[in-house]
Design goal:
About 5% of the residues lie in helices and about 45% in strands. The strands form 9 sheets. The protein has a 5-stranded mixed beta sheet, with no helix packed on it. The protein has 3 domains: about 260 residues, Jelly Rolls (Sandwich), CATH 2.60.120; about 130 residues, Jelly Rolls (Sandwich); about 120 residues, Immunoglobulin-like, CATH 2.60.40. The chain is mainly beta.
Amino acid sequence: MRASWVVLCFAGIVAGSAARLSAQKAPAATGEPRLLSVHPFTGQRGATFVATVRGNGLREATSVFLEHAPLTVAIEGTEAEPPNETTAKSKTPFDLVHLRIQVAADAKPGRYPFRLVTPHGVSNALPIHITAYPVAAEPAGLHETFNGRILRRGESDYYAFDVKAGETLTFEVISGLSSIGAPGGNAVGFDPSLTIFEPSGSWFDPKRINRVAFNDEPLWVIGRPTDAYLVHKFERAGRYLLRVEAFSGQGGPDYSYQLKIIPGEAPQDLPPARETWNERAFSRRLSAGRLNELAARGGTPQNQKSIETYRAGQDAPFFKLPGTLEGGLAEPGEAHRARFHLDGPQDIAIEVETPAAAPPLFNPIIRLLNAAGEEVATNVFAGRGACTGALNKSLQAKAIVPMREAGDYTVEIRDTTSDLAGPDFRYRVQVRPQIPHVGQVNIDADHINLRPGEAKTIRVIFDREEDYRGAIAVAAESLPPGIQALAGADFEPDKDPPLYRGKRERYTPRTEHSVVVFAASAGAVPMQQPQVARLVVRPVADGKPGAVVATKQFPVMVISKP
């Protein structure tokens, strides 16, 4: 096929790890509806296509819940999934819901979540991908060699395509069962890989296909996508084969994927970044207004001065606090330095940003040295691991340091190794006074289904950064009639302290949690459609609530069925 503009979508059978299978087979404790997969999950704007949702507790689905999506979705039917070799031993029945999806002609390409509504409540969300490219469905049936589905373990899909000499194509596989946000992280989900073969033969076998390019994922890092992305320039014209397969040859019915073949070098289609605060990630931006950003999260006046930027170098120039050191390590073994003067005791924070390459590629070590050249602090955290208890070290993007002696100090920046460097080894190191504030906030809500008289809890986990001691207010907004939100507390089992704490307080915040109880009154009226509620988190300083530092929206529904 000539495949320079086609998006191919098909459901694989890549059954994931045992952990994933157990998560899929385990019935929800409350009998709530749960979506596992949708196939196909990609459609072209302006087109209409049919998709099948697979999950538990979906046989009585009545409608589809969308939020501001350029889609019209109708349920065409539901049925029980026939037993197969993967689900024959499962004690949990699986349901299939057939949807007709119509995409608006002016829809913006992207990912749009949908949920199913049943008498037992609203389900979790799955995304529908909208693309500007034409979409070709996978041919039906079992294909061992070409253009087939991955129906069982060890199978692969092959696609044939023709190219011209010197032509560049971009190949990308997007998994329909992503590991992002799933329990177990990168260890679960569908991890696809791409391989390009040329049927050029060999001295022993003239029909042999030879591998010319391969990609599993650009970088395997916990929390990042494992989708495959490959850009290749073909030296010779002719017909080539593209193979799509799963990591370790796994297989299962929920593993759909989208294959894109685009002319030229196209950027990778990554999921949208979550708009959350994470000050302990190397990728976050250390702006000149950092002090005011932190003051706002602490509920204090934003009257801090702007932070100046300086260039660090081998001659160790002076800079003033607060200051941001900017530079790059162009040569292996290179180390940059800069000096500052401390007039007296002060609690400072050292933050590191890597705008281009980040760990595990660029691993910046930041050392703080006194006038005698002795190390006072570093961004290397030494402690015992949670798995084996073995002593290990890790690089941190932030360290808070209580300074008690006046004098001159030197900040040193270098890579962990002495043989790596490059134009993408850029850094920004910010040295500033500590500002007590609320750090990262996690709200574990996805949806809430309540019967009249029932109550459920949502946990809000937050970090107290830089000795923040103020109160933190959590409020619920836009609740349906008959539902109220109350402050609560859950039982927390005692935890044994780590065997070797190290200087944990220097590298980790104080983490606490609160509980919000959603309670439906005995007279709450069951709903036909969920209503979107909102949780907001604010710091409280001097008896006044500050600006919103975190928020999350999720559907809430009153149901009548058990």
